[in-house]
Amino acid sequence: MAVAHRPKDPQRREKIIAATLDVIAEHGISGTTHRRIAAAAEVPLGSMTYYFTGLEELLTEAFMLLATTTSARYVEILDAATTRAEAREAMVEIITGDIWETPRTLTLSYELYAFSIKNERVREVIRHWMSQSRVAIGRHFDPMTTYALDAAIEGLTIHRSFQPEITLDMVREIVDRLTRNDAPTASL
Amino acid sequence: MAVAHRPKDPQRREKIIAATLDVIAEHGISGTTHRRIAAAAEVPLGSMTYYFTGLEELLTEAFMLLATTTSARYVEILDAATTRAEAREAMVEIITGDIWETPRTLTLSYELYAFSIKNERVREVIRHWMSQSRVAIGRHFDPMTTYALDAAIEGLTIHRSFQPEITLDMVREIVDRLTRNDAPTASL
DNA sequence: CCGATAGGTGTACGCTTGTACACCTCACGG
DNA sequence: CCGTGAGGTGTACAAGCGTACACCTATCGG
């Protein structure tokens, strides 16, 4: 009984998941097919059903990757802040910074929300993302303010992508207003 | 030369557009097909290509209907307010009120945003919706505050749908903070 | 050096899709 | 009462889809 024949490419799965995000970003979920993903990941079509039960599972895993990656970026930016002023500026950076420079992340978010309607597990992923994000914000602000800021990221990001006239200074002013009545917490 | 044979059902087009929104709400754009729309509108398949050039046109028109309808509702609620306090309460109602009671409108919004990535005309529809909405809000608040409130509708609506613990009072508090430094305009 | 077997893939199947268009219906001018 | 043409539809077609699985490949214990 031979054991033999190790996987040639142990990263195959991850490569496919990453490629899935690329395909969604470019074609939307309705244009995302096994064949296109296989082409993007440069793997044979057969690998799709070998590594994943179906398209739905693949999409779900892809969105988990998106949430993890983006969420980690939030945490990174917020944890770098040590003063209240820095924390405010960190919020401004999250809203206006390079995460959303490319339309990619924003596009993927839209598809994520749309997909979440049909998939409870993805809804869970979103809730987890939001909660992670609240933990990071909550290190600097009280709970009430934290909810407000978290929602502000969402709203301002979206609106800025359609209305570029919303300047950096306006975002700063909005963050200021939202944090003005904050009851400072222990913080770090 | 006969003139003859008037359309049996002059509302056909509108009926199809309305049915399209229903199908999108239930199945998402990726599950929206000519056949399903035809079934929902109780119209033969042939009517699809008779009244609309293609699926894309149909989706575009459907989203125009969504924008018009929802936007009109905003205006209605905001125009009913005559004092500053009422205007603030109107904002709270828009964010927490019956527009979003059913997941329908929110679901459709997600699909709208996702679709806008691929369709310039729909992006234009969104910009128009936002601008209408800003006009209505702007009757009560200064421009800067208006942008903030408009974005707050978006962010809070979305976040509340995932985090029901965001209460009405929290929304009120957030609207308060955003409008506190407002430089009152002439208003009505 | 030779099975045996884990790992991986090419191909083919049944189905659904968007779309076009040949055809049908029937109100009306003559 | 008939012929005409505007209005509308059933049907058929090619393309593309998800998915399953028979088959191939290459390693390694013996």
Automatic annotation (TrEMBL), chains A, B:
InterPro entries: Homeodomain-like_sf, HTH_TetR, Tet_transcr_reg_TetR-rel_C_sf
Protein keywords: DNA-binding, Transcription, Transcription regulation
DNA-binding region ranges: 33-52
Gene3D superfamilies cross-referenced by the UniProt entry: Tetracycline Repressor, domain 2
GO molecular function term, any single one: DNA binding
Domain HTH tetR-type: start-end pairs: 10-70
Pfam families with a match to the protein in the record: TetR_N
Name of the protein described by the UniProt record: TetR family transcriptional regulator
Native source species: Mycetocola tolaasinivorans
Organism ancestry: Bacteria, Bacillati, Actinomycetota, Actinomycetes, Micrococcales
